[in-house]
Amino acid sequence: MTTTTASSTPLSQGQSLSSYQTAIAIIPPAFYHPQINALRSLYDKSYLRWPPHLNVLYPFVTPESLPSAVQNLRRVVEESKGDGLGFWVKLDRAGSFRHKQNATIFLSPGPHDGELVGDPETTSGGALRRLEGLLSNQYTKRGRTGDGVYRPHLTLGQTSLDPVPLNSLLSKAGKLVMANGLSSEPFKWFVTRLAVMKRDEDGDMRVVDEILLGRRGTGEAGEGEGGEEDMESEIDRVPRENLDEFQGLGLGDPEESLRGVRPETSCQFSTESNEWVPVDITSIRGRRFLLKDITIATYNVLIDSPFPPPVERYPLLVNAILSIHHTPPSLATPSILCLQEVTDDFLQYLLSNNAIRTRYPLCTHSPNSVLPSIRNCVIFATASCGPFEWRWLDFAKRHKGAVIASFPKLGGPDKPLVVATVHLTCGLGDGSVSAKAIQLKTLSTYLRAKHLASEWVVAGDFNLQTSIQSIDSALANRSISKDTHELVRKGLIDEEVFSDSWELFFGPNEEDDVPYEVDNTAVKIKGEGEWGATFNPYTNPVAAKIVQWGSDPRPQRYDRVLIKSTGNLRVRHVGRFGFPAINSQDSGKTLECGSDHWGVATTLSFRPDVGDTSGQRNSVKLQLPEVDIDDQLLKTLVDPYLPCRTDRSVRETAITSLREILLQEQEPVVGVECKPSRGAIPIILAPVGSYALGVYDKDSDVDCLCVSTISTKTFFEIARQRIRRFGGERGIRVVRFVDAKVPVLEVRAGSIKFDLQYCQAPAIIEHWSTIPLLPPNDSIFSLPAYGLRSLNSYRDTEFLLRTIPNLNVFRLAYRFIKIWALASGIFSSRFGYLGGFHIALLLARICKLADGDPKGVTAAKVVRLFFDHYSKTDWLTEIIYDPEFSVGARYQRFSREPMAITSIHIPVVNVARNATRHSISALTREFGLAEKALRSGRWDLRLMGRENEFLVEYGSYVKIDVQYWGNALRRGKALALWVESTIPLLLVELNAKAPFVFARAWPRRFVSTAELDEWTELRGFYLVGLSNGDTGDERSKEQKQKDENTFIEVLQGFERHLKERSTGVLEYDSTDSWIQVQHVRKSSLGMVKADDRDWGDDGTEGDLIDDEDNFIGTKQDSDEEYVCNDDQSYSSAKATSSSGAKKQPKRPVPGRKLRPALDVINRIKWDPSLDSGDFLIGYEDRFKGIREIDVGKWKMEQTDLEFIPLHRVAYFKRRGDGVVVWDRETKKDLLFGNVVGESEE
After folding, report:
1. Could you tell me which residue ranges the Polymerase nucleotidyl transferase domain spans (predicted)?
2. pLDDT tens digits, residue range 509-548?
């Protein structure tokens, strides 16, 4: 720097530098302010008073003398600068000043040792010292204190002399220089002006003027800096020429500062460069993505001593984090991990860990990031979450705030999913509680102002005491006031804004079944508010070392995941993680865990797009009744029927094994855990029904849907071959194959039965993870009706999981209702009563229509409402459909259907199609009895078991004896199931021909206890109780005799039907089986009991009609051809069968090809020479045989309720002369001449 010697006489002789109201300083370019202020805002007490700066003269002159002093300094600069006094400043070192009570941490130019700052040998240090000397020599008294040496520095903050905070802030300052140096020169710029600063009336230092130094200087540009062009580039980085903008640098409202509003982009680990690099979020801006289910996890990793760092716990923390997902990273659902109390050292450890980088390759920070506090919040995300932006929201308390991330790929460009993580103020005192309330208010205000249309999730350590004992003790000890006590008891979380996922899923007094905590006997009793604790010194060895046991510490649920109360997110599952492994081999070994907190992981589902919601708008809300019991009683009642932990583990293992067997040599697909080879066919296996809904019991089957690209026949052949080949060593075998309209493969894994359905849908495979969220009219669902019905077993299950308000309440209520249905003899859809899907749909409707505070909804209240509502339901006229999917309301109910409970997705089916008027009467009676019992306070509905009462309350019974003594046990079971499936036909016939009789079938097989030990063959009987029906007319003796004869004829006809109907494996053979139907008096029954024997599992494969009672979905009955209703009895079925047997089939012409039916329809519709009104379509109705319909009325859309598959078309006929112009059987085709095409329907 070239200078001109100033006058030896000071220009301001008599003035001294003693006023702290003014200053001459150098302000860094605005480009550096966010990085510097990140630390200054938390550590520098003058952050709000000063911008980032290096003082040249401070203290300076009095405010009154400032104008003349500035003019004098300008004159000195003009006389001295020659070619210019501008110079380069490079802040590349961190240092500290140690005072009596504290220390100041700063950045300075050049190397230094101890307190030697601004080394004259460095370019920056020398230039600054010469400039300071030039200006300060103009005054007789200098304002510096201490040894009077000028040490240029930029203050970052102050800290105590305690080594922990001192070393922490000093290391952050050093990392700040290092991190900035990796991306550019470390805080380097060319100084061309000095800021003249003056304190305003509020005490803030404001820039009021400037002193220009000129652009040229002798300071070296440094390595790589080359001349005027580079110098001009650096000059452009200093504050603009506009003085107003220059005055505002670094002095804005802290809530609107750059750091508070400027979004930061996430970093992603690049496997190519092996580095964490900033992501390009512009690549996804403006794009729309399909919604996905997500997992949100929060974990306080506890950094109790950053110096030295607790490196021994780092591996334990990583293991806990990786335990959140057990699936391979490439197959895992989108997952977001929110960590609290993260230090710079632990962040470096995580970002360098291969397992973490593979599982969570996205992060808010990079290895070069400088975390502002000792304990920080950091967000990680899986690759499927996509790039995201984040920002820091300051709370009023220093070092407290929220990291708020926006995920466009998980929501949309205009409505991204917003995830915030917090670590609120700790402690239970008036001040700390007030601080937490303010912090939550600040966060909710921000979310509603900035992200009102988005879904949001807030996860973290809320430090909210939940133990009522702790809260009451604080009041008793006068640690908190009465107002604070009331506030804490009530809860600080605004329930109009946030909903606690734990309470939504479990309720306030429940927790997940964690083996470690269940097996730990340290605490047998938990108090109110202590269930699901994430901080528990009684079970967590790390927490036990931290707490003060003299203060009686209690378990607290500090860590939570909150969701938007009015949003479309639904809680799918909640659980805790981070527990130490239990070593049964070494019980004396000290258990280790990574943190004093357990983590919380929540799986969230988006509500599906249901299109038209008019059904929901038109549904009337139901008022929840008050009950005098809590859900604990219901849990006690259902507990004996619940699957134990071992059973759940066995089922999970069996599903995994079955997947792996089916996927031998297969490609990977989402949701499948295996490593297939390249080029094979993908197969998805997804549990549906009661297991997927979480309402199965220990005796339930597991129903699964398989989806692939191959044909149905090929799939089942491959499945059977692979299970035979690979299943033996895992205890999995094929039991039988049900070759029905919707085939089912029955498999056993130990004692667990699996029913496998199949759907051929290549497009479904590609978009499997988004299938539940697609609108129902999406083209991807353009499948054949039979395939769509199979797929709907999965779609309907997922719809219920995503729309039921409280799954835990639903599950408890479901199990209670099922136990009642079993005890009351009305749980069997095969007999025309309720099955698993019936109860699920009926109960889901109640849960969705229940009016009131969601937190006040209990299973007991839902059960009361369930029985109160359905005991008054007119089943003969009402249609039961899901209130949130109105398509069921448009179901065209037939007069022959005494009950209508519709499935959810198109094609809608009536799942209660087996119901009869007799079964409806029994259901109505049982609903009424249950409602009366609950109203009177009798909740143990098991005591209402009606089996013994059924055996004595009727004067006479229809007894249907079944006996089998053949070698193939599967045929014995098939025979029994065939009889069961036809009993509703008997009830229909009785209703039609003997209305004077009320019949009640009991859905169990009975045996005679007196003869049971003597039987060597399979033998049992079914009972239908009989009583006089209410016809309202007096019958004469002759009429009674005629009615009795009619009744006997009905029974005889039913017996003939059972013996004559031949259906393959169900064929009745008098050489090894026997069936008898008779009318018996009650006295002739003797001692009977329910037959619990399994008639059919002898370890061999075969074909059989499956049981649908525990299936929850729209699975088609394997005995669908025997489905009855009030318009079809066994006599009509028999007549159809008999006439069909006598009729000689038409012989098809060999080798002749036939145009498809679709071509014929199009020809008739569009050929101008043909009148479409003169043609009829003959098609096969499943119940009524051949029916005819006008061609113009034929529905072609699969989603239409009246859609009929083309393969049912039998012929086309001219109405005028009755001539058949196209016939499938004979391959007659008068329209096209039998020359081209081949039927493929």
Report:
1. 686-716
2. 677 777 676 655 445 457 888 888 999 998 898 998 888 8
How many domains does the chain fold into?
Answer: 5
Q: What is the mean pLDDT of residues 7-29?
A: 75
CA neighbours within 13 Å on the CB side: how many for 610? 25
Domain containing residue 1053: CATH number: 3.30.70.590
Select from 888, 911, 936 the last residue of a domain: 936
Query: What average pLDDT score do residues 201-213 get?
Result: 91
Does 831 lie in the same domain as 692?
Answer: yes
Stated as kind and residue range, the H or E segment containing 467 is none
Q: Indicate if 912 and 887 belong to the same structural domain.
A: yes
How many helices (DSSP H) and strands (DSSP E) are in the chain? 32, 45
Do residues 880 and 908 make contact, with C-beta atoms less than 8 angstroms apart?
Answer: no
How far apart are alpha carbons 362 and 946 in whole angstroms?
60
Q: Tell whether 963 and 929 lie within a shared domain.
A: no
Report pTM: 0.72
Q: Which amino acid is at 626?
A: E
**Which residue segment(s) compose the domain that 421 sits in?**
263-272+292-580+592-606
Same domain (yes/no): 511, 368: yes
Query: Could you tell me if residue 647 is inside a domain?
Result: yes
pLDDT tens for residues 132-169?
888 888 886 665 555 678 889 999 999 988 887 888 88
Instruction: Report the alpha-carbon distance of residue 604 to residue 1016 in Å, rounded.
Output: 55
pLDDT tens for 981-1029 read 899 999 999 988 888 889 999 999 999 887 666 566 788 999 999 988 7
Which run of H or E residues covers position 530?
Answer: none
* Nearby residues of 1197 by Cβ (< 8 Å), 6 or more positions away: 1203
Report the C-alpha gap between 158 and 166 in whole angstroms: 9
CB 107 within 8 A of CB 187: yes
908 lies in a domain? yes
Instruction: Give the residue carrying structure tokens 């102002």.
Output: 449
Terminal CA-CA length for the chain? 93
Q: Are 288 and 90 in contact (CB under 8 A)?
A: no
Report angle CA 603, 439, 602 to the nearest 5 degrees: 5
Q: In 595-625, which positions are buried (b, 16+ CB within 10 angstroms) versus exposed (e)?
A: bbbbbbbbbbbbbbebeeeebbeebeebebe
Question: How many Å apart are CA 937 and CA 662, to the nearest integer?
Answer: 51
Residue 1033 binned pLDDT confidence (cut-offs 50, 70, 90):
low
Using H for helix, E for strand and C for coil, what is the string for 559-619? EEEEEECCCCEEEEEEEEECCCCCCCCCCCCCCCCCCCCCEEEEEEEECCCCCCCHHHHHC
Q: Which of 636, 635, 629, 623 is nearest to 868 (CA)?
A: 623
